[in-house]
Amino acid sequence: MTSETVSDAEWGEMLLGQYFKMLSGFAQDQAKDIVDREKTIQSQNVANPQHHQSALDSANSSARATLLGILGQLALAEKTYHSMCFFVAKGFLRKDSSLRSSYEGIVSELLVLKEGAKGSANRGTPAHLLGHISEQVLQYVFARMEMVNFYEHLGSSRPDTQLVPWSQFLEDLRTICDKNHRLFHHPMLAHVKSAFDFETEAMLHMIEAQVHLEDYQFLASLLSLNEAHAKLNSWESLAHACDEFRNSGKIGLSAVISLSGRTPPERALLRWHTAFKASLVSKFSFYFYENLTAQGGYHVDRMKTLFARLSCDYYQKVAAFHRRGDAPWILLAFDAGGMPVHYGYRFPLRYPVSVQGLESFPAILIYPPGMPLAPAHWPSIVMLLSDPVKSAEAKERPVMFYDERMESSYYFMRVEPKITLFVLFQRRKIGRDSAVVTFMNDMVFGLRASKLIVTLCPRSK
């Protein structure tokens, strides 16, 4: 059955439904092949009308060809988006070829097509259907542009020199999710709607987990990580569904998947999300290491095996540094000032007593285990955490302080607004110890996921 002998509803369901399914499953090349072939047919209908074809039929074919051309551009833009090739800085006196400019061009053409369909007020007519689909795709493109802005702002947050304002990013992303919750809802766009929701909601839950980790909230961060994991699995399942469809040979030899075993570049953004979740799981396991190792009745060797499977086993990094150096203690200090009393790990219905004074600065992890830090060190630690100048400097680099009273040197660096990494020496350290500085930078920037986030920074061609 050719496209000119089917109704517009059947045409949309058969062709556009297949197109948007491929688009949602990271098969942008195949999606473009679908609309390019159909665009050729529609253009031929306009150039060589049949004797039974009316002027209205020719106009409908022309509008279809226009929409198909726009969808072909959208497929290319979506491939760029998911390949993470869109973070390219515009050069001096160079034409802007960014993804944003591509989406803006698509918006302009969709607005023209939508405006041309306004003359048909009758529902069910070809012009009305094309106008409605154009409006839905327009909403989708606007949502995409919002996510491009979000990723670019996140990439420019510079986690290697400052603390990322995760609460603000959480608010911004929640606004995007809420705004687009009821948009581009047409059944033909169901697959891309699901993919967009899975992507944004997975990111939303991951940022929620990050915010909860900043406040040392065990249960809240665990639940957010679990939700993010579920959304990422659902998002990835769309790709698997398209893989099976392409392998069935229903859309030609061009759909054959590479047998190299490598993840296609158009799934780079999905890989980035997966890596970001893995970094959060590693951080969660480090912050709550003592709680996790005390649960489940696992043998200590079994727990070491489980932690070794993480993207980064921070606890073993600390252990390795301790073995190589002469620092008696490495610890994470938490500033609980102004926090509700139910931070950390606790039974949901059991609230601890309120803390104040030095007890407002607990150590959430001390290495080596079984060797508690001498209480006399805590006034010095609290003094450093409360010093606004040193705390500001510690957001960017390790800071060293020698306490003559304790005859001890303290290196510290902020990981989160309320969590600080300390390395203590019971002697005077002269200058900046390169081994200590390297260790602390590696730990802190890893916990901040700096390398992942900076990949979102615009880069030159």
UniProtKB/TrEMBL annotation:
Organism: Notodromas monacha
Annotated Pfam families: C12orf66_like (PF09404)
InterPro entries: C12orf66-like_central_sf, KICS_2
Record-given protein name: Uncharacterized protein
Higher taxonomy: Eukaryota, Metazoa, Ecdysozoa, Arthropoda, Crustacea
An example Gene Ontology biological process: cellular response to amino acid starvation
